[in-house]
Amino acid sequence: MESPMEVIKRRKSVRTYEENKPVNKEEINRIQDLLNEEQIGPLGNSVRFRLLDLGQLSARQLRALGTYGLIRGARFYLLAAIPDGEGALEDCGYCMERIILEITDLGLGTCWLSGTFRRSSFAREMELEENELLPAISPVGYPGEKKRMAEKLMKIGTRSEKRKPWSQLFISCDGLSPLTEKEAGPYAEPLEAVRLGPSSMNLQPWRIVRDTEGDFHLYLKGRRENRRTDNPLDSQRIDMGIAMCHLELVARHKKLEGSWKRLEGLIDSEPPLGNLEYVASWIEKT
User: Fold this and answer.
1) Which pTM does this prediction carry?
2) HSE on the CB side for 281, CA within 13 Å?
3) Can you tell me whether residue 196 is helix, strand or coil?
4) Which domains does the chain have, with CATH numbers?
5) Percent helix / strand / coil, the chain, rounded to 5
6) Percent of the chain clearing pLDDT 70 (strictly above)
7) Which residues of the chain, if any, have pLDDT below 70?
């Protein structure tokens, strides 16, 4: 990608695809090359991908898959499988978003779909192993010219185009005051990339605290105090991986070197604000 930030701004959730305009062979080969590369997330988990071509399935298999939700006209689906374990969903979100942004750069549309696919026909097509999860899938294709009414209503219902302001997402080193774009300095754009990221139900659960050393600590803000943290398919953890991907891609593009790490001292420590759960830290290289 020439400019990850521009691709992030351009990416939109697409639910209606051009049925009479198939993805060409060159684009399919480029996507397959991406999927054949080793995909390991920053927390150490390896993600396995498959591009499922519905055109290669029998009528019986197509009937079993059906049409997922509001998706119409998509021939190809991107499937992601990962062994269940600590950090698995974050790494899945990180690796899959990198691929989705590359697909966006090709001029194709996608749409994050996360949920319980373990017993679905998509899981059977992925040939899941016993310990694997299928946390997310995405249709792939050329966006349809006209959006259906149901799609427009969904965007309104989830307020998918609206993003929280900086003051609600990024926190200064005192753990209380909002971090301003001026205070963020060269990291203003990488943080803005996080703010623009997609999330389940557009909840935007990421919160980032900058410490006195200039490092950034990523936290998950739960929907409610009793949010289940043991849910093996908690889509908000996928959102954390998307945030990590956005910050890293834009930071590296700006020649800001660093890496994601889980700091033992923060895992069990009291978060700076209530209802936050520590995920990982972006540690800048000096």
Assistant:
1) 0.90
2) 18
3) coil
4) 4-149 (3.40.109.10), 166-284 (3.40.109.30)
5) 40, 20, 40
6) 85
7) 58-69, 116-119, 146-161, 223-232, 286
The C-alpha R_g of the chain, in whole angstroms, comes to 19
Distance of alpha carbon 263 from the chain centroid: 22
Long-range CB pairs of 100-104, under 8 A, 24+ apart, other chains included: 100/11, 100/138, 101/1, 101/4, 101/7, 101/8, 101/11, 101/245, 101/249, 102/1, 102/30, 102/31, 102/34, 103/31, 103/78, 103/140, 104/7, 104/10, 104/11
What is the spatial distance between Cα 156 and Cα 197, in angstroms, rounded to a whole number?
A: 17
Interatomic CA distance for residues 115 and 200, integer angstroms: 10
| Residue that is written with structure tokens 């480029």 in the block | 30
Predicted local distance difference test score (pLDDT) of residue 271: 80
CA 76 from centroid of its chain's CA atoms? 19
Residues in contact with 242: Cβ distance below 8 Å, sequence separation at least 6, in sequence order: 93, 94, 97, 197, 198, 199
Closest CA to 202 of 246, 150, 158: 158
What share of the chain in percent tops pLDDT 90? 67
**In the prediction, which pLDDT does 225 show?**
45
pLDDT of residue 71: 87
User: Can you read off the two tokens belonging to residue 280?
Assistant: 């990982």
